[in-house]
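Posting here for the record, re: adenosine-5'-diphosphate.
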Amino acid sequence: MDAAKEPMNPYSLVEEHFRLQAPQKAALKRLGISTIEDLLYHFPTRYGDTATAHSIASLRQGDTAVVFGLIGKLKTSKGFRTKIPMGEGVISDGSGSIKAVWFNQPYLAKMIADGTTVRIEGKVSARKKTGELYLSNPQVEKVERIPDGVGDSLFGADGPAHTLYPVYPESRGVTSNWIYHAVKKALASGIIDTMRDPLPKDTLDRYHLPTLASALVWIHAPIKESDAMAARKRFAFEEVFFIQLERQRERRAWQKDPAFVIDPPKESLNGFISRFPFPLTAAQKGSIDDILADFRKGHAMARLLEGDVGSGKTAVAATTAYAAISTRPRGQDFGTLQVAYMAPTEILATQHFESFIQYFRHMPVSIALITGSGCRKFPAKVPTFRNGVRQDWTDISRAQLLKWVASGEISAVIGTHALIQKSVKFKNLAYAIVDEQHRFGTSQRQKLVERNNVPGTTPHLLSMTATPIPRTLALTIYGDLDISLLDEMPAGRKTIITEAASSDTERDGMYEEMRRELAQGRQAYVICPRIDEPDPANEMAVQAKSVIEEAKRLASSIFKEYSVAPLHGKMKDSEKERVMQEFKNGKIDVLVATSVVEVGVNVPNATVILIEGAERFGLSQLHQLRGRVVRSNHQAYCFLFAESQGDKTVGRLKALITAKNGFELAEFDLKQRGMGQLYGGKQWGVSDVGMDAIQNVKMVEAARKEAIALIEGDESLASFPLMKAEIERRERQGIHFE
Ligand code: ADP
Ligand code: MG
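Prediction output follows.
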């Protein structure tokens, strides 16, 4: 591969420099790489080491091996049946030879010439029919010589060009190997000399961090481990610093304009609270007080309400919404201040709509629901009956709803993403609530706020989440928000009994326990990882249970005397709602569902959840799912079935069984992810490098301090154009984190 004549432009697109096929383009997009700079910021997750080199004769199936040798017989071909384009070659050392096969990347065979000395690293696989061994999709690199003592070397005795070898996060279509070569080409073009360091020099000096130029070389092509570590530290600092910078700017922008002052009389608020069928917990009261204090300040609240699943966030949202709804906008004798309440799924939005009707039905206010499948309004002039249940709301057209929202006729609008479309305009939007906020991006929250019709005011914002996160992570990603904690469960809640199992006999035992609960009138969830029949091309999926099949099986052979029904994302919305309604009414005893029920669904009578294929779900997702059955004071059970019994699965499930609450689980999760698990921090928009840093309190605090100082000195970053450009790059990349 020839080095380009002039340095690549870091802001130019990858596709301007490399010929890309559609699957590669898609893979790069998934990896968040569009420009050359993005590529250079795509860091290795670990480094291979030449010390693990094998002789070809000693290779066994299943090994991940490093081999040095001469490559030859390079050619491209197509898979016999699959028609997959392939590249192949044969590597020989003194002890023997082995084939290398690159599926989907025939060009690799063209990039090296026959007779080149290479270092090659990959998985040793065996042909099904013949048992012949080959290296599948190995990473390949030209080396000057074969290192001493490797294989039965016929070649020189000097070391290879590098001793450390980068291994990159991959995505189907783009291998670590491809990235390695692309990065190498970019570096060889002299690009580093054209890139300017976005971090100020005195900051680098203060924390003994390498410059951008050194760090880029060290992270992609380190000669020694300590260089790679220093580079990672620098990029980690840089990432946390930029996240902080962005958050601090957002906070300032947020609080620039005035907000509605909301200050309801105490008695009226207490009256509202007394209508709940339970006393509020001290934590709920404390959070409500935090919010009310913010409401009085005259600039917009930006607050995160963090509470474990089942801690009662909805009641806090409803009470504070009441504070807004019972306030009349100054100088207007019609309508109230308005509230927008956004939830990530239709099921959840509908559920909140119904709760709000219960909480507000004694008041003369209108409440609306807006989702992709239609709009509703409470109260209805005449109550109707649907599926045998009285309903006080009525279907209305979207146009009608938008009109009433714009005129101020409707006080509270609850909805999904449909709530943040441009056509939705409020007359007096004073308060925006975002439930399960980690499901939304910052830009979506921003759009919600822009629905406000009152020029020059910003609504108060309450973000709610059940994702408990350690303090350092909270400081980093929620740097712009004040935090209220619901660190207390409603009185009388029992610790959920969690058990893990993997054999069919154990599963039968758990069905027995479920039956016992059902016999007492309780209900159960069964969660499956898939919706329907497996894709036969995907071997992994074959074993995972599917909702549709499992619902049939349970209905016909395990829970014959009970009513069993499936629920999944591919069902029609009306169908989903009917099933959910029947489960709530107790007509359905066992709900067999995908993780669509993961967030927020509230059916207090359901006390058992059985999760099939538990190893396929993330830890926080499992915790969320388990949260479906901690909604009452009945003893609840969570059964976890894992099909694989790897150490990692066992460790994770054990953490789930022993962790007392979501916080402990989050700490465990962070430690695991920090160990370099691919894409660990993605759900928070933090890279692996950043996640490593986040475990280091000192580093997080230092980065935060630097960012705050900088923003205080120069809010618009006018004198830091490089930083501005970097923030923009990060925002652009952030899109891929959704
Ligand atoms: P989450 O915080 O997960 O959103 P919810 O708001 O859905 O939790 O509340 C979970 C359940 O607990 C609901 O059935 C709700 O009515 C009930 N609940 C809320 N607060 C209390 C309380 N203080 N005492 C008893 N039950 C409560
Ligand atoms: Mg909730």
